[in-house]
Request: fold
Amino acid sequence: MVAVKLIPLLISWFGIVLVLLRGFSGRRFPVAAAGIAGFALGVVGAFALLRSYPGELSFGIIRGVVAGVFLLLWGIAVAALYRNTMREFHVFQGEKLVNASYYAVIFTFTASIIAGAICTCRLPAPSGNILALLLLVLVAVVLAFAALAAEKMLPAYLTVSQPALMAAVVALLLFSASSLIRLDLFSPLSMKVMKFAHDFVHQFFESMLIPDHLFIRTYLWGYIGLLFGNGVGFWGGMIIWFTPVVLILLAIRFELLPSVAHIRQGAKRRKLLAAAIRERRFRLVVPLLALLVFAAAAYRSSYPSVEYWDPVPVPVMANPAGEIVIPKQGEINLEDGKLHKYLYKQGGKEARFFVLLNPSGQFTVDLDACAICKPDGYGQAEGTVICYYCKTLIPLETVGKPGGCNPVPVPFTVKEDGVHIDGMTIINSWNMTVQATARIKEGGK
Amino acid sequence: MKRLLSAIWAVLSSRAVPPLVCGVFLLIYIGIAFGTDDTLIALMAFTRKSVILVVLLALIPLNSLCLMLKETDRHLKRRRAKNGDENDAPAGLFDESIAVPASPEFAELRGRLEAEGYNCRRKEGVLAAWRGISIFPTRLLFLAAVFCLFTGILVSLTNRSSHRMNVVEGEPIPTAEGGGGLVERIRLEASSGVILDKKLRLEVAPSTAGDGRKVFELYPPSLYRGYFVYPRYLGFVSVIRFSAPGMQSASEIQGALNIYPPGKEDRLEIPGTPYQIVFSMVKPDDGSDPYMTGRFTLLFTVLKGKEVLFRGNAPTGGEFVHEGFRLAIPDFRRMVITDFIQDYGVLLVWTAALLFMGAGCIWLPVRVFLPRREMVFLQEHDAVNACSRAEGRRRTHAGVFHETLDILEARRPSTP
Reply:
């Protein structure tokens, strides 16, 4: 089962080595060696990190590194577009660096460290199973040699430009990361874009002194309201996700052709230009493939293969004093560390909430909704709960603390006979939360 | 010193400045996003306080100005070269430049280029050919728009001041110095416009301080003593008379209630008592707008601390009595919760929007249908210095240029 889960990541690793070997075709063996060494170091580093900081911090660091690499790709894509399409940028100062022999080794080494760290995070007990780690490194070495052999079989005309190389490597790293909800970037990116769109529209209206929704036609406000929806987060995220590769594709497609004004034979000129155009077309192949990998990563992020623990809410009643009492032991064992959902109805109103024993051994009672999103509820997986609406992961340690996309905590008391919650408080708290999130849905006003 | 100035000029007039500055701000935004949910607001506040970030942001309008100067200079130089006013075509002004060792046969060249659709001008030792419209004016408009936009943002960020105040019918319009004109009337009417659903008019009488009669509407906002009057929400100022069992005398308070549209709640505390009242408006059955008609019924919930005592309703001017409690609404007046905003950056941003629209409307058809293509042949001793550039349809133009060079080469007198 673990091996099956690791297959996409190992395929990505193979792809990374293959593309690096082609990108630095003059330095095949140093690149292969740097790749293997980097992967092994990544595995060891992630192992040490996860062992030292077993919580979310380690995953946060690795995810931060992946995000940093993605940002770097953005910078490189913009620079490539400027460099290739404007004569004044044609002389790129970094050319010397890129052509230096150590650059290939450093680039490969860094990419491989990240790939190794991501693969380690995918292991079921990454901080404890040394045999699995050794096996992982061994498989990575075998795949690196396989890539070394496969690269020789690739047609010679399939060349890779430096920005395209970067795009391919980052795409494969993001694809690997998307298989772990804790390392995934696309879902948090979508959420941030949604928040940005909301803040931006609000600030724009205020800054430009545009009248509030009170005075604006309903149909028009309906269109503006689209900017506050989940779709904006998803499509905005898609734009940010794909733009760097698209920029690199444009940079290659619109790369200035060589000057042939000095050649006086028309046929020779045409031949030279045709060769340049053909070569340019072949250089589009790798970024086009990277585009597909980016799409696959976004898909995996939107439809993760993780199964969430999401029990059907159990209906509960309040006693004559208006108190809901949930026994600790009984049909449901509240102390099993799992999230247990309940449904409370009172006078035509209802509220959904859950009880959870967090890793520090403390009970927490929370609404099955947060103060930001639509109340689609939460599921539990891998030391976190996930908000189904925005796919934000909340570490179990922080469930019970208010703010952001955390479930809204509800006051309760723990007694001998179980967890006691005030029914009226639950209903009021739910109503306030649902009203607030409905307002966001209607336009955030 | 000259080298230093030249380096500074190269940096300031580089087209890489805007993406670099935007990249830095993006990184800061991402950094802030780790710490707070209100990232954009935090970034704005951070920029406002940081001199370095303000200077960094100011680089963009400065860069636009420098680019305007640089590109105007290049345009004029190209123009002079085409007119034959410059003996030498400066390097970097054209896409391709080449010296062909040939005696010019400009008459033949001119004929061929005109047959290809180029306009030609021939002067002594110079042949210039061009077709299409230059994108230069559009580019200037675009750069001016960028300048206005970022200057506007900068001015807004650093100098905006905002005060939220209630503008109430029958009371002077609130100003920082006082002495504002009397708000004679507040009117809300239905609008037939495409964008706005309602028309709001605030009619202010002349003030003793010398302000003339003013009428403020929703958009575009008007200025009053240097402040934009920006109406935000509607409500009423009501006089509430409340008495409860055990109270020695009835309390009369005047409260601003932000309760429009119907259903929106606002709360008033009765000073010196544990009572508070939550108000809202009943939505009229006939579908009329209570703010427009001035006829409405107030719904209220009376609380003692957190305990709900009773709920009731009373029309304006009416009274409600319940188990010794008495609540009357003898008077009400319309109110507009208004932001008084001093921010001249807004004007620049509006200007930028117009300039962007103008630039876009010109750029697209010019770029698609009539891109500028030009070539210049300058005779220099026994050679012809040929230069070419195109803003679109580059390959076709380059083909014509290269064939023209072939002709020049073919006409070269054979050397012994």
Chain A has two domains: 2-186+233-299, 314-442. The CA atoms of residues 175 and 297 of chain A lie 4 Å apart. Chain A touches chain B at residues 67, 71, 74-75, 78, 82, 86-89, 192, 195-196, 199-200, 203, 207-212, 214-218, 220, 257, 259-264, 266, 269, 273, 372, 403-404 (CB under 8 Å). The longest helix of chain A spans residues 56-85.
